[in-house]
Amino acid sequence: MVYCMSDIHGYYEGYLEMLEIINLTDDDTLFVLGDVIDRGKGGIKILQDMMMRFNVIPILGNHEYMAINCMKFLNQEITEDSIKTLDEGIVRGLMEWQNVGGQVTIDEFHKLNAEEKQDIIDYIEEFSLFEEVTVKGKDYVMVHAGLVNFEPDRPLDDYHYYELLFKVPDYSRVYYENKYLVTGHLPTRCIQGNNYQDKIFKGNNHIAIDCGSACKGEGGRLGCICLDTGEEFYVDNKE
Ligand SMILES: [Mn+2]
After folding, report:
1. Helix pair angle (43-51, 103-110), 10° resolution
2. Residues measured by CB to lie within 5 Å of ligand 1, the ion
């Protein structure tokens, strides 16, 4: 079976519970569509679990994108040279990351030893910008957010990270006539015309799977879909 999950945002217990609910085995594949870290406290633990599993395929989210350069900086020894590299770019990057809930991840990152930190950095650098999969004769394109400057014939390789990671797609528009576009990034409660709060959204060849697990104190769930059966799975955010 092939499963997709997204925007886990540090909800480690929810992630583990979901793996149990779907009963993920070595014969299955799980795509994780980015934003594993930030907001919730367990993002690094989730990454450490994911990297041990050959059948979990990670896709880059904007939060990992913002984190990677900061993590590289934070993993340096403080020397005269490293202070010289503390340029405006890295300061701005750290502030922007903190503004979107990165502090919990920074705190978690600080508790790792240098080797563990490097493993996290190396792992995030392996994340792809998109994935494609065919399941039971149906084609799926998976990206974290959307496809800016979309053209049906434009190869996915041709899109820049900022066209894939930051902007939401138009859910009222069919992108690929014969493929489904699977995305996270925007909690489905924010999709216009969607009456099903915190449920996976399906329509116009879209499958939107961020069910708002990072929406603290106002419901929110971690969602997961099985592409073979269309079955949906949910874990309430109890944090
Ligand atoms: Mn996002």
Report:
1. 60
2. 35, 61-62, 185
